[in-house]
Write a structure and sequence with these properties.
globular; 32 helices; single chain; 5 domains
Length: 893
């Protein structure tokens, strides 16, 4: 007997299990191996099937069989062998018009109507597992025995007497066939949706493919007749030729796929497919709002309340939200040492009574940005420039928020329309929905109550943030900061640390808004009241617009300072630009470092080297390894870049303490002094000033890396790809938003918002006693009684890959992190362990990296994932004759 790990349904053999997975779980992000002692998981069902054939070819059944028997509360029947038989049995009571109480926990629904019960079950309790049933319905019994473990017993059949009376009911068989037909049709429709809206295959081409498929299927009628005759002859039966013809015709006509793709079928044309998606996949369609009917000006709005209602119907989603809420609530009550891990730890959250009252609140993070869907340098420049407003739910774990499928669209319009009609007109339907969310909330059936919420923050670049918040959109003069009242000229001579710049408090900002309104001109950089603040009761400008690390640092300060410092070092003939580019291209990047390796610096660079955020981050991180040996240690330009590298490591750290914030503040002050001393004639950018606010920003908002726009920017690529392939520019916002909502409906069907804790594709089961002695001792100490472990060469957890040969940080010595090189990766009792060879790290100030040597004691350690000081793996590189490693982010030790 094979048990599905996803829903606990039993299947008689491997073939039936794979068929069950294809029908019921084809939308999952990964599939676990059904063998109970195998921790492997796979992205596709085909990969799982290959794994079963290669790794478990002789294992006919699972090693441990814990089967459930189901008891009926209406009668004395207690031997129903599986969930399907149980609900078929309940159906018999309903067809006899007996009143049946819902068997799921915390549900008091009653009915005596068969259709009403199944509608209730599908709406309120789908998906579900057997653990959701009320106590007493399911009884677990251990069937592990010598007979069940015999390899010759390929299946384990349930008690025939328990299912015999049910399987003979013609009404039940009809219902089962109808359900299976619907499942097959919907899964096929889902596959077509994936082709059309993920792979972006044109609808006309899919129509042609389905037409050809139907023709080929119809042409196979003689083959079906021949097969039926062969089977009948094999079993010694004969039927009239006309009867066989009729059977073959009936089989062909009743096949759900053929019925769906035949002429006039539900999936036969692009129009009918889209209609099917909207009827069966809970597609939340965009609503068009007309700005000017005469000029055909409009924008698309995806109702945010409807999206939230659909999300909160998903049990797994609600569980994750509640779990995350309980974690933060518990940490507040325990009163542990002050650390900043998320927005929940910042002062803005704690001082907002609506958010921090202890009740579960829906926290929305908005993102707003303009982007080009056509070539920004071509003839269509600015012609189809769009403004997109996205949102994500801050209640989820950061790893879940970063998935592009968890970033939802709410408004899509043309950028020119925003300028002509203003944000207040464009955002009106969105703000009306959020007002309802603040005042009334949405009803969550799984919690049995209404949950209120609001917009937590708005993530945006400086231009979009100033435009939406009502500040001046020019940064060349005047008051250029939305945190304080500093002017462009003042930031050249005074830093934030001096305390010379008054912070924008709520009262001060309101006085500036009133003055700007009365005088008709800006006051201290304020032009008008923020559109969101004007409508919402629990949102303010001071607490709603955090700075963006990506635009301020990686696409602002870093490329500019690299250009100035590299130009100076090239002029001093430490190296040439050609040599630098040769070294950048020839550097042996490893593992994940290859993904974002920096590009060549253009020969035409002057004030900036350009490049995107990932490339600039990688360049300044690996620059010490690439050209560090060519630059003298006392070179001032080099020191500026190395201090900037220290600042970046602190800014991208996921956890902060008061000590790390104070260290960041001192580094920013040092960097400013060095930069102005070396380049006295170069003016500081506004982004240099914004950087000086980051220490206080972390205290208010939590780690700034949790609020950057990096993942939101990646969402633009989806829309750019659609427009490039469709080449359709008629009502672009409608086309893009409609396709996006179909894509989101596919992900909602998957009901999986987090990747598996552990993902691996190849493991070996190894008895503990054959391992080396020090490994055995470590395992016995960490996990007493373990007799077998799983070994693998690579594993992925929460989106991060670990491989043998990588370095991990665990522990510290004299204030410096300890490194270990991964020798083996073990999975013990479903927990991830690394067996590491301890390395000694000596800090090199010039390289801002650690020189690695083998530990004199040659110690080796078994380290669990949760014990690591930083859960991001590193790679060591040869720098001359020395092995070195550089951190990617600051590590608290």
């Amino acid at each position: 007997m094979w048990r599905c790990k996803e829903c606990s349904v039993y299947c008689p053999n491997r073939y039936e299990l794979l068929k069950h997975l294809r029908l019921q779980h084809r939308h999952r992000q990964s599939y676990s191996c059904p063998h109970l002692n195998c921790p492997c998981s796979f992205k596709t069902l085909n990969a799982l099937q290959i794994h079963l054939s290669r790794v478990h070819p002789k294992q006919a059944c699972q090693e441990i069989l814990e089967l459930e028997s189901f008891s009926c509360a209406q009668c004395s029947c207690k031997s129903l062998s599986n969930e399907r038989d149980f609900f078929m049995h309940v159906g018999l009571h309903l067809k006899s018009h007996e009143i049946v109480t819902c068997m799921f926990r915390n549900c008091t629904f009653k009915t005596n109507i068969y259709g009403t019960f199944h509608s209730h079950k599908n709406r309120k309790h789908t998906p579900h597992t057997i653990s959701d049933l009320k106590p007493g319905i399911v009884t677990t019994k251990n069937l592990f025995s010598q007979e069940s473990s015999d390899a010759n017993n390929d299946t384990l059949c349930p008690d025939d007497s328990a299912v015999g009376s049910i399987s003979t009911s013609p009404c039940t068989d009809v219902d089962m066939r109808k359900t299976l037909t619907d499942v097959i049709e919907q899964n096929f429709a889902s596959a077509l949706l994936k082709l059309e809206h993920f792979a972006h295959v044109p609808g006309a081409k899919i129509d042609e493919f389905l037409e050809e498929l139907h023709c080929l299927s119809s042409a196979s009628h003689p083959l079906s007749v021949n097969i039926i005759e062969t089977v009948l002859q094999k079993h010694g039966s004969t039927l009239d030729k006309l009867v066989i013809e009729e059977v073959a015709t009936a089989l062909s006509a009743s096949h759900p796929l053929l019925k769906a793709i035949e002429k006039g079928g539900s999936l036969s044309t692009s129009y009918l497919r889209n209609k099917f998606y909207r009827e069966h996949f809970n597609v939340i369609e965009p609503v068009e709002y007309v700005l000017d009917k005469r000029l055909s000006k409009s924008f698309q709005y995806v109702p945010i309340l409807k999206t939230l209602q659909e999300l909160f119907k998903i049990k797994h989603f609600v569980e994750k939200v509640v779990e995350n809420h309980q974690i933060h609530k518990t940490s507040e009550e325990t009163g542990v040492k002050v650390t900043y891990k998320s927005f929940y730890d910042g002062s803005h959250f704690k001082e907002n009574y609506f958010l921090s009252c202890g009740e579960l609140r829906i926290l929305l993070t908005l993102y707003i940005d303009d982007f080009e869907v056509c070539n920004p340098l071509g003839t269509s420049r600015r012609k189809h420039k769009l403004c997109g407003i996205y949102w994500t739910l801050s209640n989820l774990h950061p790893a879940s928020q970063s998935a592009l499928s968890s970033i939802y669209l709410t408004i899509m319009c043309k950028s020119d329309d925003v300028k002509n009609y203003g944000y207040e007109r464009i955002m009106q339907p969105l703000l009306q929905d959020v007002i309802t969310l603040e005042e009334d909330g949405i009803f969550v059936p799984l919690l049995g109550k209404c949950v209120k919420g609001t917009i937590q923050v708005v993530a945006a670049d400086n231009l979009s943030a100033h435009s939406l918040a009502g500040f001046n959109e020019s940064f060349s003069a005047g008051n250029i900061c939305r945190v304080c009242t500093a002017t462009r000229s003042e930031i050249q001579v005074t830093d934030v640390r001096s305390g010379s710049f008054p912070l924008r408090t709520k009262d001060l900002h309101n006085s500036h808004v009133n003055s700007a309104h009365q005088n008709g001109s800006s006051c201290c950089g304020v032009k008008r009241q923020c559109v969101i603040t004007k409508n919402l009761a629990h949102f303010s400008v001071q607490t709603g617009y955090p700075p963006d690390l990506m635009h301020d640092v990686f696409e602002g300060i870093v490329p500019v300072e690299l250009a100035h410092c590299l130009s100076l070092m090239i002029s001093k003939k430490y190296f040439t630009l050609d040599l630098l580019n040769k070294c950048i291209l020839g550097f042996p990047y490893k593992w994940s470092d290859k993904t974002n390796k920096p590009c060549m610096i253009p020969h035409t660079f002057s004030k900036t080297i350009g490049g995107n955020a990932h490339e600039n981050w990688a360049l300044i991180r690996f620059l010490p390894f690439i050209i560090g040996h060519l630059v003298p240690e006392d070179e001032m330009a080099w020191q500026i870049l190395m201090v900037l590298k220290d600042i970046i490591e602190l800014l991208v750290a996921p956890v902060h303490t008061e000590d790390s914030i104070a260290y960041l503040e001192s580094k920013i002050s040092e960097h400013r002094k060095r930069y102005q001393d070396l380049f006295p004639n170069v003016q500081l950018f506004p982004k240099h000033h914004f950087l000086e606010h980051y220490p206080s920003v972390i205290r208010k908002f939590g780690p700034v890396v949790g609020l950057w726009t990096m993942r939101f920017e990646a969402k633009h690529s989806f829309f750019k790809h659609i427009i490039r392939l469709s080449n359709c520019f008629k009502n672009v916002p409608l086309s893009l938003s409609s396709k996006h909502q179909l894509m989101i409906s596919y992900h909602m069907r998957a009901s999986s918002f987090e990747k598996p804790i552990l993902e691996m594709t190849n493991v070996s089961s190894v008895p503990v006693d054959v391992l080396e002695r020090d490994i055995v001792q470590s395992i016995e100490q960490k996990c007493p009684g373990t007799i077998e472990v799983h070994m693998t060469r690579s594993v992925k957890t929460k989106g991060v890959s670990f491989k043998t040969g990588m370095l991990v940080v665990h522990g510290s010595n004299s204030g410096l992190p300890d490194f270990g090189k991964i020798v083996h990766i073990f999975i013990i009792q479903e927990r991830l362990f690394f067996f590491t060879k301890r390395l000694c790290g000596w800090y090199s100030e010039h390289h801002r990296a650690f020189e690695l040597t083998v530990c004199p004691t040659k110690a080796r350690d078994l380290v669990e994932l949760s014990d690591l000081a930083d859960d991001y793996p590193l790679a060591d590189y040869s720098v001359g004759s020395v092995r070195m490693v550089t951190l990617k982010r600051y590590v608290l030790v």
